[in-house]
């Protein structure tokens, strides 16, 4: 075979030659319909594809076609070096799932607030490598954008969003008194700090904050606090105090958390002020029973239960996706394990926060 013939044959086998004559907008339209979990692989096809899968045109087209997806992002702490970094849950070619490190991001703050809004993750706290104390991460392009700094020095304990406003609660100058700050994601401006109840003077469990029916629910070792931003009013919920819920998430205005002491997944519905145990998860919960730690996340209307397993001397992080169903006029909640995979093998990690990102 001549060198010319061989050269032509090699060129024809290159992946990018499969669609060389298609207009750019058609290629973007095709890629927009492909699941974002395949974009890391597609970026390896060619430089052209690498630029397309991170282009503004592609994500604008995905949004227009209604092809956006909910993705689970996880802030993990590496106990070996103390670094907090962002990982994304991806589906592999064999159908299994893995946590993939998002590169080229600054080390995240140890004590910080993390909130997902659409395709962005907002981070508030003290960074080691950058001077800002507030940034946003655009998960479509893996880019970092500085935000106006908080106008007070505050150690953020909890953060969540209601109607485009991010509410952050934490310590200010007084280590025994907590304050609340509000950041408007549309105007990117801070509002004057708000007061908190006098009883909120101990400490909040870090990241123990959820939103149900437009209200914020926060927890500390003694109390549960409910904040209604429309009324600027603080309340307590006696039924919520029945259990010391931690690492909880909300799906359809119902709070879920794994009670490791009893080995059950509990659910709290504020409409009926009632607690129930989620049925149908006995096998999964038995697998998680003796984990070093566990964490309940949510994305796309489903729960993600994350926990550790030890195989020999190797620690493995396992994740299960759980769909939920209400039965008997809503009096019972049943869970179904869609999949359960080892998503990170090796290392010594724990989950700081999970985030539901739309990409």
Describe the protein's architecture and organization.
The chain is mainly β and 359 residues long. 13% of the residues lie in helices and 45% in strands. A hairpin with a 2-residue loop joins strand 20 and strand 21.
Concise synopsis of the structure shown:
By secondary structure, this protein is mainly beta. Helix content is 13%, strand content 45%.
Strand content: over 45%
Helix content: 10-25%
Distance between the termini: 47 Å
Number of strands: 24
Order of helices and strands: HHHHHEEEEEEEEEEEEEEEEEEEHEEEEE
Please give the largest β-sheet.
4 strands, antiparallel
How much is the average pLDDT?
86
Structure annotation, total helices: 6
- How large, in whole angstroms, is the Cα Rg? 23 Å
Poorly predicted runs: 3-17
Q: Strand arrangement, largest sheet?
A: 3-2-1-24
Summing up helix and strand content along with how strands pair, one would put the structural category as mainly beta
How would the global form be characterised?
A: globular
Q: Which keywords apply here?
A:
359 residues, mainly beta, four-stranded antiparallel sheet, 6 helices, 24 strands, disordered N terminus
Summarize the SSE layout with pairings.
Elements: H1 3-12, H2 24-32, H3 39-42, H4 47-52, H5 56-65, E1 70-78, E2 83-91, E3 97-101, E4 112-117, E5 120-125, E6 134-138, E7 143-146, E8 155-162, E9 165-171, E10 178-184, E11 189-194, E12 209-212, E13 215-219, E14 224-228, E15 233-236, E16 249-251, E17 254-259, E18 264-269, E19 274-277, H6 282-288, E20 294-299, E21 302-311, E22 314-327, E23 332-345, E24 349-358
Helix pairs in contact: 2-5
């Amino acid at each position: 075979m001549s060198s010319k013939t061989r050269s032509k044959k090699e060129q024809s086998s290159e992946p990018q030659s499969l669609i060389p004559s298609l207009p750019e907008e058609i290629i973007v339209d095709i890629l927009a319909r492909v699941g974002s979990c395949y974009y890391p692989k597609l970026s390896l096809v060619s430089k052209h594809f690498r630029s397309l899968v991170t282009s503004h045109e592609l994500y604008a087209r995905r949004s227009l076609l209604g092809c956006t997806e909910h993705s689970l992002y996880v802030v993990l702490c590496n106990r070996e070096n103390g670094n907090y970094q962002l990982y994304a849950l991806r589906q592999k070619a064999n159908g299994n799932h893995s946590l993939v490190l998002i590169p080229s991001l600054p080390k995240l703050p140890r004590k910080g607030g993390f909130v997902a809004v659409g395709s962005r993750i907002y981070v508030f706290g003290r960074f080691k490598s950058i001077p800002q104390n507030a940034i946003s991460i655009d998960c479509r392009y893996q880019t970092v954008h500085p935000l106006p700094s908080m106008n007070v020095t505050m150690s953020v304990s909890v953060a969540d969003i209601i109607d485009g406003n991010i509410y952050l609660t934490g310590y200010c100058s007084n280590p025994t008194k907590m304050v609340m700050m509000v950041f408007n994601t549309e105007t990117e401006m801070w509002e004057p700090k708000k007061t908190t109840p006098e009883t909120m003077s101990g400490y909040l469990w870090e990241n123990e904050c959820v939103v149900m029916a437009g209200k914020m629910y926060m927890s500390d070792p003694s109390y549960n606090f409910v904040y209604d931003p429309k009324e600027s009013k603080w309340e307590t919920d006696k039924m919520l105090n029945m259990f010391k819920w931690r690492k909880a998430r909300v799906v359809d205005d119902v709070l879920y958390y794994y009670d490791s002491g009893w080995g059950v997944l509990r659910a709290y519905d504020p409409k009926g002020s009632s607690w129930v145990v989620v049925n149908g998860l006995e096998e999964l919960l038995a697998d998680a029973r003796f984990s070093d730690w566990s964490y309940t996340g949510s994305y796309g209307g489903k729960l993600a239960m994350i926990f550790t397993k030890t195989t020999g001397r190797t620690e493995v992080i396992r994740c299960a996706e759980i769909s939920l169903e209400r039965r008997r006029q809503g009096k019972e909640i049943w869970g179904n394990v869609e999949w359960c995979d080892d998503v990170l093998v090796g290392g010594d990690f724990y989950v700081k926060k999970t985030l539901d990102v739309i990409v």
